[in-house]
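Re: the multi-chain job from yesterday

Posting the exact lines I submitted so nobody has to dig through the queue logs.
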Amino acid sequence: MATASETPHIALTLRDHLPILQVLVPLCTAPLIVLLGDRRIAWGLAFLAAVLSLVVSFLLLMQVMDGSFISYHLGGWAPPIGIEYRIDAANAFVLLLISLTATLVLPFALRSVADEIPARSHTLFYACFTLVLTGLLGVVATGDAFNVFVFLEISSLATYVLVSQGLYRDKRALSAAYDYLIMGTIGATFFVIGIGFLYMTTGTLNMADMAERLVGQGDNRTVQAAFAFIVVGMGLKVAIYPLHLWLPAAYNYAPSAVTVFLAATSTKAAMYVLLRFMFSVFQPEFVFDTNLLLWILAPFALLAMFAASLIAVFQTNFKRMLAYSSIAQIGYMLLGISLFSVTGLSATMVHLFNHGITKAALFMAVGALVLRSGNTFYDRIEGMGRVMPLTGAAVVLGGLSLIGVPGTAGFISKWVLVQAAFEADLWWVALLIVASSLLAVIYMWRVIEVLYLHTPHPEAIHKEAPLSMVIPMWIAAGACVWFGIDTSLTMGAANTAAIGLMGGTDGMALTPTVGGLLGTGH
Amino acid sequence: MTLEFFIGHINYWLFIVLMMTGFYIVVSAGNLVKKVVGLNIFQVAVFMLYISIGKVTGGTAPIFPTDMMGKIKADPEIVYSNPLPHVLILTAIVVGIATTSLALALIVRIREAYNTIEEDDILEIDARTARAENIIHGEAMGGRA
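And the result, structure tokens for all chains:
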């Protein structure tokens, strides 16, 4: 057992500490905000933390784009005894999405939060926001199974608080937050039971070590139960179709800025954990019959794509409609997993990112509409596209990306997904993907029709949203187009990530290939 | 199933009973506070599972004796229990307390806003609000909200 004192002293630069800085910066910012207790400083600090996280995650992604990984040993304790942070292409990509969204949401939140939440709550609001950021980044960065649970609960608990802050506009935010709390806690507890079973079998909590010890344990009933508990537990957090009941209310009644952040990141981080456990820790090709995955997950994915899209078509509230559309889009990601190929996983990873930025743009537009119209019921936002041309155009761009029109980010992910379906000789799945996209055409067209082809509501404020909201909205909408044309960053990272994930144990090998930087003194 | 098998796995049986009790309360209780109590029982069941698997037959408390200089004098003869699951559960207990307190705080606010903590009443109030919204916003669009 290597102790800290045995580790030879190695001169370290700040660059070597990037994996922990990713989590540490927002984690330290949250109590600082509470202690300083000033609402102006609160926003500034939160924004600073988000920008620093973005820089760190970008540097990390650049280091691992070639398929290598960074293993960071907390406190110099070598894994599997110590806690390890492990950054590879898969999680660096998700880290970038999370910190990018946080950086975009905060400038947007300045006006939106001021409008929707009383000033006395602002300090604590931003403190909770940085805690959510900390938790999500931690969940994704860590390579320790129990650490995942702890960070998951940090982010979830802060999220419940943020959702409940919608109570100043609608008291249903409270019951939405309570329902989310109950279901989220059940999900997290299921996850912990799964980890407990894995610990009973392997005697380790390090995910890479666990993966090595699970090889050939496929018939072990404890391992099978662990798999089931982890998939169902994370499924609740991801909002996989039959487990999605908390999502529409939570997204609908949360403050606009919170919805933007949640929709773009929190289900995505949970989806990443699901991927990490299903592929890196369990390696289904050793542990389970792979066809089983297709026949269990694909029906739920298809059900989500159609049922949730159909419900979205009949909504009369823009924000609620987008919430149902999110459930449908999670179906696409799940379908990519169930196809069980490098292409399928690439589709999941790239859709994770593309859907994140698309929904960020759309929910920011919702926030701008709420500021000017009071709410987003279709009869209230009638004609607002004419008086708010920039917001209206962002809705159109985001909508096109949601449908998957060529030239937008959404097209790239659906294209890869259709390719994966053909690779698996499932042409009818490819047809269903296209058919469900047609439902997206219907529900997006309804919104666009309402926004442009009616006369504006007399009670709405006929003015474009402030620049602090329009600029982040357009960065996100612009990203939808940018990543639809230049796919080198997104597809490159998604492909590297998918190959790493499909590599199973090789992808999680204990011997660091490149960049095993810290405390490897033995 | 022999009696020996049953007694040998007694901690797992208790875990299952406790977990299902808690889970059933969460699902079936109509009172929001009772739901939180159910959630707590559910979580405690998991704590018990973790703690019980840390026990090593014949093992004692995992505390190494040290000499005057603080140097560890570990006796290879002595069997120790596994302390790691206990440490994990300390963290999980903290998480559980945070969850409970947040849930109770939410219930206080729900009671202020709805004047009830019965789920059925809250659902009814929410449904009534939704119907009112339908009348205001839905009919103008020829649909339902």
